[in-house]
Every structure is written in structure tokens, then in C-alpha cells.
Amino acid sequence: MMLRITLFGALRDADARGFIELDVPDHSTIAQVREAVQRYVREHALTISPNLIQRSAFASDEEVLHNHRQIPENGMLAILPPVSGG
Amino acid sequence: MMLRITLFGALRDADARGFIELDVPDHSTIAQVREAVQRYVREHALTISPNLIQRSAFASDEEVLHNHRQIPENGMLAILPPVSGG
Amino acid sequence: MTDIHTAVVDIAHAPLDVAGALDFVSDPRFGGVATFIGRVRQHNLGRVVTGVSYDLFEPLALRTFQAIGERARQEVGGPMKLYIAHAKGHLRIGDLAVVIAAATPHRDEAFRTCRLAIEAVKHEAPIWKQEHYVDGDSAWSEGCSLCEEHRDAELAAAKQGGNKHGHGH
Amino acid sequence: MTDIHTAVVDIAHAPLDVAGALDFVSDPRFGGVATFIGRVRQHNLGRVVTGVSYDLFEPLALRTFQAIGERARQEVGGPMKLYIAHAKGHLRIGDLAVVIAAATPHRDEAFRTCRLAIEAVKHEAPIWKQEHYVDGDSAWSEGCSLCEEHRDAELAAAKQGGNKHGHGH
């Protein structure tokens, strides 16, 4: 299925549109999505360090989704680099 | 010498003018003034508990004066019951 | 020094000024501002309060606030600004009794400075609170002794009691 | 519940509203109000800052603020009001980035609630700060990972380091 992953913070550099789209198997886990994102940035966004992807979380609008969780049915995810609010 | 002792808080009940005057020996210590105040309230302000005088501090405009200190030369003191600001 | 502002405000003339406190501590060096505002509550120890009166020994109160500020400056050991103002006179429910604002480069020092200041104001400044109750009665609040011997005993007792004073403030 | 107010404020439209925060938490039951205000500082890690931009994942940020408020309510275990607002967009030096106000009957819970809230906002909310420097350069601040495994490791390291995060906020 097509996943749309919204970008925030330093990860906005990965695509000026503010999101990336990835084709992943249905029912992928977040851990699998993370690997797909790693491959994507290796090919398309070399300025993004793999370590930053490793330290980023994934989330729906409602909650952070940890590695064992499956992707949401609506195919919408956000990738959240380490946070620095306040 | 004549001491004028300004009253605050619950001790204002000791005299509606807001102060009491006591004749004490020159160079009295605060401990001696405290005893003189105890005698005064026993005679003139029975609603004031001796325990409240015991827990009160004495001060000049500049600082709290502990028991061993001498009375200020200008004869002006304040008696400070336990504080409850904020 | 212009990094410490102290005031006693007769609230017959003007209320305490939170915006003024924030202005005073505002500084491009400072990212953290912690404030504490003490307000008159409607209940205390189970009684309905209609208002309170604050009595202050004003010259010594101002010196005490200044000394608290200097102690805070020592504690922080770097740049800071601190504002301490206390009301005097008759206050109604919701009126501001005390305003503290502390600003420092980072938030931890700001919180610590603000807390240090309000604790010291409560325990050391010559200020007395009289509560007025709905039944027409009134009472001076129990407080902290400024006598060294009583004070040490009270603080030790407070520590044993899990940092709560017996007299409830 | 009307005891928790959360907001993300686009500062192109309006600045954060400290007076509004104080109004929200104001209540005749509460004698203690603690606030924290985070402002943009002119220097960070030795560089001259001209402004910052905040990027937020807004729906999740608001849910996170609300969850923080509910956690605070649990911690207090009694009446409280809590206001959490964070700016988004481009801020200049001195602009307000975050405003927290917590009110409770007594001051200790107010301070604890305010501190809990700002720490949680900084460490848990999906918010990112980009600093702009006087030389025209800019950089996203290092932050706290929201990944469980990284987060646990970072928090443990922070505790060892005397409660200071390696990334300096």
C-alpha cells in the first residue's frame, strides 16, 4: 500500500513538499517502515543521517507508534525526529 | 530609658495605638526587653498569651535582633510575632 | 543593583502588577521565567474566608526581600533577575497577595530561584495575615517564629513532618 | 474537562497570552499559581541567535498537552487547573515560546504541576526548534528521541549526568 509520511523538523529536508510517499506491504510494522525510510533517504536525501532516522519516532495523529505496531489503515504516518519544544 | 515598641499582627491587640512604651535600664538586652514585655502584657493585655511573646522576635528597622543583642540607641524596637506572609 | 526589584504595594491604591513583574525580569539573556502568584482563597482550614488583611513592618520587609534576592543571586551564581512584591491592606477573594518572578538563562535556575524566594518571603519576612470569616469572626494566621531558637525547632519539626509546617502554610 | 486548557498559537496571528493563562487558572479555591514562560534567548551554546522557528505536529501536540494535563491531575489528586500553550511559527528574541500556568489550593502542588508540565512538553510533545543565527546560518536543535528505546537510554544518561540532558535543554 502507499504510505504518506509527513516530515517535521530537520527531516523536512528530505522533501520540500513536507512528506514522502513509500510503497510498503500491507500490515507492515513500524520497524519495517523505518527500514523503508532508511532506504529512501539513502537514495533520495543523502543529507539526512541514518542515525537521525534511527532516533525518530513514528506517529498517527493520535499517538506515537512504537516499532511493533502496524501501520494505520489510512496510510497516514508522521515521522518525528527528536523533539525540542519549550 | 524609654523604649517604644511597635506592635504588629496579633500583638496589635496589646495597645490600640500600635505601640507600647516601657522604661528599661540603658543597655538592656533583647532577652531583658522580652521579660519586660511579658510583665507588661500580664498587667495590661491579658488577651495576649505569654507563649506568643516567647515566640516573637524583636527588630530594628534594619534587622532582627536576637536575645543577646542590646537595645538600639534610638530606643525604637518592633516586636514581630510569628510571620505568615505570602 | 538593577537585577532585584522589591516592593510593598498598598492595595488600596493599586493591585500587584504581574505584567510589571514580567517586564522587570525580561532580558534577552534569559530563556526561563518562573513566577509564583499567591492569591486569597475562599476557604482555609475548613472555614469560609471573605477576605484577608496583611500587616507589614515595611522597612524591614523590604530589606528582607532585598536580602532574599541577594541570597538567590549567590545561589544562581550567574545572571538572573528577581522581582518580589507583597500586598498590604485589605484583600478580597482572588486578590493577589504576593508576586514573585525569576528569570535566568535556563529554566531550572528560574524555578529554583522562584521557589527559594517565595519560601523565604513566607518564612522570614515581617508580614502577618489576618483572615476574615463569613461569620464576622477574624483571626491572625499562625506563623513562623523569627526567634532563632523557635525557628530552628520549627524547621526541624517541619522536616520531620515531610516538609510540611505544623501551622499549615 | 474545563480544568485543562491547551493551545498551539500561530504567532503570525497573536502572541502567547500570559494574562489569559492566569485568567484561565484563576479560581476562588486556589491560593497558589505557578507559571513558567519560555522565551527566545539571544545566545545559545555560544552563538548569537536572531530568532527561532517552531515546527509542530499540531494534532498530536494538542493531544500530548491534554495527556500531560491528565497526568498532572492524577499527580495532584485534588482540584487544579492547568494551562499549556506553545507558539508556532517564527519568533524573535524575547518572544514567548511556551506558557504554562498551574493553580492549586497550595503552592507546593502548583510548583510541582507547573514543572511536570514544562518538562513533559519539552520531552514528549512533537515540537521542533530551528535556531537562526546572526551569520545567516540556521540549525535544528538537538532534541529528545520519542522512540522508546532511545528515550529510555537518553533519560538514564541524563540522570547519571546530574539531571542534565546531553543535548542541553
Pick out its properties.
A: 86 residues; alpha+beta; Ubiquitin-like (UB roll); C: 169 residues; Aldehyde Oxidoreductase, domain 3; eight-stranded mixed β-sheet; 4 helices; 8 strands; 34% helix
Description:
The complex is a heterotetramer, with two copies of chain A (86 residues) and two copies of chain C (169 residues). Chain A is of the alpha+beta class and 86 residues long. Chain A has helices spanning 30-44, 50-55, and strands at residues 2-7, 19-23, 57-59, 64-65, 76-80. Chain A has one domain (2-80): Roll (Ubiquitin-like (UB roll)), CATH 3.10.20. In chain A, 24% of the residues lie in helices and 24% in strands. A five-stranded mixed sheet of chain A has the order 2-1-5-3-4. Chain C is an alpha+beta fold and 169 residues long. Chain C has one domain: Alpha-Beta Complex (Aldehyde Oxidoreductase, domain 3), CATH 3.90.1170. Chain C is built from four helices and eight strands. In chain C, strands 1, 2, 3, 4, 5, 6, 7 and 8 form an eight-stranded mixed sheet that branches. In chain C, a hairpin with a 2-residue loop joins β3 and β4. The longest helix of chain C has 19 residues, at 58-76. Chain C is globular and about 50 Å long. Chain B binds chain C through residues 6, 8-10, 12, 54-57, 59-64, 66-67, 78, 80-86, and chain C through 38, 54-57, 59-61, 63, 86, 97-98, 118, 121-130, 140-148, 150, 167, 169. β2 (32-39) of chain C pairs antiparallel with β2 of chain D.
